[in-house]
UniProtKB/TrEMBL annotation:
PROSITE patterns referenced in this protein's UniProt entry, alphabetically: ABC_TM1
Membrane-topology descriptor: Multi-pass membrane protein
Residues forming coiled coils: none
Protein name, entry field: Carbohydrate ABC transporter permease
Keywords from the named record: Cell membrane, Membrane, Transmembrane, Transmembrane helix, Transport
Family: Belongs to the binding-protein-dependent transport system permease family.
Residue ranges annotated for the ABC transmembrane type-1 domain, each copy included: 70-283
Any Pfam family: BPD_transp_1
PANTHER family: ABC TRANSPORTER PERMEASE PROTEIN, INNER MEMBRANE ABC TRANSPORTER PERMEASE PROTEIN YCJO
SUPFAM superfamilies named in the record: MetI-like
């Protein structure tokens, strides 16, 4: 290997070093620390944790509350991910032919919820869902529908959080879709128009197949994101009413910082890591082969 090649490699390693250090300190080390902690019984008060082996995992597998929270989490992901992807795809297709200056405005408008604090957004939506003077019930009243209790009723609380999540992440998906659509060569669409293809056929046979890498990325990203939902639940419902919005991360938090069962909470974290990895692998195995990268 020549000196020039060694110098190039050294520069490359130096450039990725900050990101690698962040990944090591905030991701890799915490994962191994949690894995070790999951084998212990520790309430954060005792100076010496007690080694219990796989007992925490045994308790986890026998816990009905764990399965209930996992089921709610998967249901929440099913409610939010497909709706966000389809709704944002429609918006992106409508905006794809907009003027260049208008695109900057639209992107800023749609991306605003992503860069806004989730806590601030949650507080605003709590007012929207207020049963007495909230905007949501005011809109329903126009159609003659009685007021709903939204966050205060078990049958509507999870749906209420899902609606907020769809609104929040649709803008992000629109921006990503627009980037993917505008990367499609214009020559393909022009050639299809010359051949007499309709707008529907252009979208179905040209744009959507070439957009599959973007769709695949958003599917995996949003699935992982929704399985880790915590902040809005912590602010808006605290897992209630009657644990109807206690998703898996909220379930973990309660065991860690309310019951101080850090070993059991770490076991939940490791279980969720495994579940997310399995779901990602299934998505890649079933859908990844249908992605067109060229």
């Amino acid at each position: 290997m020549t000196a020039a090649r060694l110098r190039e490699n050294a520069i490359g390693y130096l450039l990725i070093l900050p990101a690698a250090l962040l990944l090591l300190v905030f991701v890799i080390i915490p994962i191994f620390y949690s894995a070790g902690l999951s084998l212990l019984s520790w309430d954060m008060m005792r100076p010496k944790p007690v080694f219990v082996g796989l007992d925490n995992y045994g308790s986890l597998l026998a816990s009905e509350k764990f399965y209930n929270s996992l089921g709610r989490t998967l249901l929440y992901a099913v409610m939010t991910v497909p709706a966000s992807m389809l709704l944002s795809l429609g918006f992106a297709l409508l905006l794809d032919k907009g003027l260049r200056f208008a695109m900057t405005i639209y992107r800023s408008f749609f991306f605003a919820p992503i860069v806004t604090s989730t806590v601030a957004i949650s507080v605003v939506w709590m007012y929207i869902y207020h049963p007495d003077y909230g905007t949501a019930n005011s809109v329903l009243a126009w159609f003659g529908i009685g007021p709903l209790r939204w966050l205060n009723a078990s049958d509507t609380s999870l749906l209420s959080l899902a609606i907020m999540a769809i609104w929040k992440q649709t803008g992000f998906c629109v921006v990503i879709y627009l980037a993917g659509l505008q990367a499609i060569p214009v020559d393909l669409e022009e050639a299809a128009k010359v051949d007499g293809a309709s707008l529907f056929r252009i979208i179905a046979q040209i744009k959507l197949p070439l957009l599959t890498p973007t769709v695949f990325f958003l599917l995996i990203y949003l699935t992982i994101e929704q399985l880790q939902t915590f902040t809005q639940i912590s602010v808006m419902t605290r897992g209630g009413p009657a644990e109807s919005t206690e998703l898996i991360v909220m379930h973990l938090w309660k065991y860690a910082f309310e019951r101080f069962q850090m070993g059991y909470a770490s076991a939940i974290a490791i279980a969720m890591l495994v579940i997310i990895l399995l779901l990602t692998w299934v998505q890649m195995a079933l859908i990844g082969r249908k992605v067109h990268y060229q």
